[in-house]
Amino acid sequence: MRLGLLALLCVGLVVCSCAKKEPAQATHIGVTMRRFAIEPDVIRVKQGENVVLDVSSKDVQHGFGVEQLGIDEPIQPGKPAHIRLDTSKKGEFDVACSIICGPGHNDMTAKIVVE
Asked: How many Å apart are CA 21 and CA 95, to the nearest integer?
């Protein structure tokens, strides 16, 4: 009797672990980089939300950098980058242009807020 219950339990665990989970639908947020701004300058998301940032450049090459999240993505004009955002922890994360793009480069900042 015990052996039968144990076998049934093992089969149930295998079936459950093989079942495919549907991925949560991603929320896409458009981000535009241009001399010398990042728009929007505050990006608010919910903790645990499946978020993809669609980052584009209006003029020259920029870099979308979020050091605390390990993001450093070059952004080419006409070639948007799709960056999956880690929303596992709450906090405020600084965004900066990581490729020098002109005299106002240091003014290119934004913030990601995970609530």
From this structure: 32
Q: How far is CA 38 from CA 23, 46, 98, in A?
A: 29, 21, 12
Both tokens assigned to 93: 């994360």
pTM more than 0.85: no
Q: Which two tokens stand for residue 16?
A: 């459950």
Output the CA angle 82-106-54, nearest 5 degrees: 10
Handedness of CA 82, 48, 109, 42 (dihedral sign): positive
65 and 76 Cβ atoms separated by less than 8 Å: no
Pairing of strands 27-34, 42-45: unpaired
Q: Report residue 1's pLDDT band, with 50, 70 and 90 as the boundaries.
A: low
Kindly provide the residue ranges of all beta strands, DSSP E only, lying in 1-115, ordered along the sequence. Answer: 27-34, 37-39, 42-45, 51-57, 62-66, 71-75, 81-85, 91-97, 109-114
Q: In Å, what is the CA distance from 79 to each residue of 3, 24, 57, 72? A: 59, 26, 8, 16
